[in-house]
Amino acid sequence: MQRKAIMIGATGLVGEHLVKQLSELYDTLIVIARHPPRYINASMRFYQVNDFDNLSEIFVSVGVDRTTDAFSCLGTTKKQAGSDEAFRKVDHDYNMNFAKLCRDKGVENLFLLSSMNADIDSRFLYNRVKAETEQSISALDFAQLVIFRPSLLLGKHKGRPLESLGQKAFKLISPLLSESLSLHPISAKRVASAMAMSANDIYQRSKYRTEPLIKHTNIIENKQMLAMTRVKK
Q1: Which of 40, 85, 111, 190 has the fewest CB atoms lying closer than 10 Å?
Q2: H or E stretch covering 125
Q3: For the segment 109-129, what is each residue's pLDDT rounded down to a tens digit?
Q4: Three-state secondary structure call for residue 77
Q5: Residue 206: in which H helix or E strand, if any?
Q6: Is the distance from CB of 9 to CB of 70 less than 8 angstroms?
């Protein structure tokens, strides 16, 4: 069976690493974005969307079905979005719309990038919206929904000075910190690897499954991602 994946958020910090890994893992990778990703190969089909409000128009022709795995690394910040409402529209509404369109097409597995601090009762908008997005997509009843909650992401952030400052501080103290700490920062590449590894694990297990699939939501915390992607010395 030909393996197929669809993805949004391919030009973000985690997404630009994930798009490369998925293009090597799947026979076909469908990327929907405003701009082409840096990495492109023959297995990739790129659909440009100028406005994610029109995402449903793209889905008319992408050829998504139950054999497709869906991935979302789409996200922004309030500063980048310009307002609370615009931030929520990207992080919640666009992710939710993508997930619903996938589910309506029969997609059974979705892999969602979230945040370690996702909390519906948080005083911070960012954390609340991340939690709302998790809950909304969970209600769509995917066979397998895997949510990834990284800590501080290491990589080149555009327009996120506080995170860049945090990375500089981390580099000074990193030799003293163990990766067993749940708050330990993690590179975007390792988060992408954890997402790709999780998808491949589900696929490999499905080939030998004889009993009916039990629908399940799995949350992969930062500490688990660090362990999954640790390079043995």
Answers
A1: 85
A2: helix 125-138
A3: 999 999 999 999 999 999 999
A4: coil
A5: helix 188-206
A6: no
What pLDDT, on the 0 to 100 scale, is given for residue 233?
Answer: 44
Q: Give which of 222, 193, 226, 220 is closest to 25, Cα–Cα.
A: 193
pTM of the model: 0.89
C-alpha dihedral (103, 81, 218, 183), degrees to nearest 10: 170
- To which residue do tokens 């128009």 refer? 57
Which candidate, 139, 157, 141, 149, places its Cα nearest to that of 118? 149
* DSSP per position, 153-182: EES--SS-HHHHHHHHHHHHHGGG--TTST
Confirm if 25 and 2 have CB atoms less than 8 A apart: no
Mean pLDDT (whole number) for 220-230: 94
Q: What gap in Å lies between CA 102 and CA 110, rounded to an integer?
A: 9
Handedness of CA 125, 131, 137, 140 (dihedral sign): negative
C-alpha–C-alpha distance, residues 162 and 167, integer Å: 9
Rounded CA gap, 72 and 31, in Å? 10
**Closest listed residue to residue 201, CA positions, set 222, 186, 220:** 220
The rounded distance, in Å, linking the Cα atoms of 200 and 26 is 9
